[in-house]
Amino acid sequence: MLSKIEETKKTKNLSLELLRFFLCFWIVICHSCDINNRKLNKIKNSRFHVPSFIIISFYFFYGSLYRRNINKIKSRFERLLIPYIIWPILIIIVNNSLLLFNLEGIFDRKLLLYDLFNQLIFGRQINRIFWFQFNLLFITLIFTIFSFIFKNNFLYMLYLLFIISYISQYSKLNFKIFSNYNDLNYQNLGSIAEIIPFAVTGIICGYLNVINKFKNIKLKICFISIIILYFLLEYDLFISIIGFRYPGFQLNLGGMILFFGFSIIPIENIKNQLIIKLIKCITKYTGGIYYIHIISIDYLKKKILLIKKRTFTSSIILYFLNYFICLIGTKLFNKTKFINLFN
Q1: Nearest Cα residue to 205 out of 8, 16, 62
Q2: What mean pLDDT comes out for the span 12-19?
Q3: Which long-range contacts (CB under 8 A, 24 or more apart) does 173-182 make?
Q4: What is the pLDDT, as a whole number, of residue 12?
Q5: CA atoms within 13 A on the CB side of 34
Q6: Looking at per-residue confidence, does 132 or 152 come out higher?
Q7: Mean pLDDT of 274-295
Q8: pLDDT above 90: residue 186
Q9: How far apart are CA 138 and CA 145, in angstroms?
Q10: 123, exposed or middle or buried, with CB in 10 Å at 0-12, 13-18, 19+?
């Protein structure tokens, strides 16, 4: 089972790469575009994108955890830590340099070491969307510890963590604990219990090897995914609960449906190499685009009226501008570990 998952990862599942592109563009739209159409706005605000990203990430991490592959686990931490640490430092340097020469900075003030401390400890202050990276790092660490302590029984501990996380959400215990702090840094910690179930879902999908198992029932999965997604978007199937970012089971189900739905797209049946190359091209740099897009939005909306107006066109421009930055960065640092800043 594991060999099939690793083979999927090695050859790159283009369907899931396409999903990454779709989710990344969705995030850029959420941060840069106002949509007037009610139905489209409901899709935009459904928030299924982050759960789906987490599920993909931990689906492919299952094999490393199960085998307790030190090298691959280290590689994962490296890929997460390099952008988490380096991008805030680069932002401080650029911002403070602009202000030094009496130019408009990314921020309206000089950034201090205290800001960097808050950024690295809590995942916000300089690049506020790095709360996501903070959660990924923290949950990866917890899952890794469980894997080494409980060996082959670590899945049972993750199931327990899954249950405890939802109990803490639906009982409002998680919200009550962390909402006592006025500091948003501590409220960032409250989102961990909301993200853990998505990560466990990804691990379970990896354990079950769902992508390969779905190959023979693609039409059924497609039909079920469309029906469930429709009902999730049109009706409140689950009790709404208060939380910090992504509380409740509905978001997990929405993320799963996107993951399942895209994973069965038969891209492998496409024989035209030009189309394959196009798909590979447009699905690149989703990590890098995510890392820098919010900073580019905050800065460019001061300079460009179209971006300030938050139009759909401006979202497309922003996406490809960040894509181009990541393309250049990848070319410059292709032989170094700094390539993780752009991928």
Answers
A1: 62
A2: 87
A3: 174/243, 175/242, 175/243, 175/244, 175/247, 178/244
A4: 57
A5: 6
A6: 132
A7: 95
A8: no
A9: 11
A10: buried
**Cβ–Cβ < 8 Å for 270, 276:** yes
Q: Is the pLDDT of residue 126 over 80?
A: yes
Tokens of 131: 């709360």
Tell which residue, 59, 50, 45, 55, has the closest CA to residue 232.
Answer: 45
Could you tell me the residue ranges of all domains in the chain? 2-341
Q: How far apart are CA 286 and CA 12, in angstroms?
A: 14
When comparing pLDDT for 70 and 38, which is higher?
Answer: 70
Instruction: Pull the structure tokens for residue 265.
Output: 């797209």
What gap in Å lies between CA 39 and CA 70, rounded to an integer?
46
* Termini Cα distance of the chain: 28
Give how far Cα 294 sits from Cα of 164, 215, 269, 297, Å. Answer: 33, 37, 36, 5
Place of tokens 């369907």: 15
Contacts of 166 (CB under 8 A, 6+ apart): 197, 249
User: Would you state the torsion angle of the CA atoms of residues 151, 255, 205, 285, taken in this order, to the nearest 10 degrees?
Assistant: -80
- Best CA proximity match to 208, nearest among 252, 249, 256, 136: 256
Distance in angstroms (rounded) separating the CA atoms of residues 38 and 40:
6
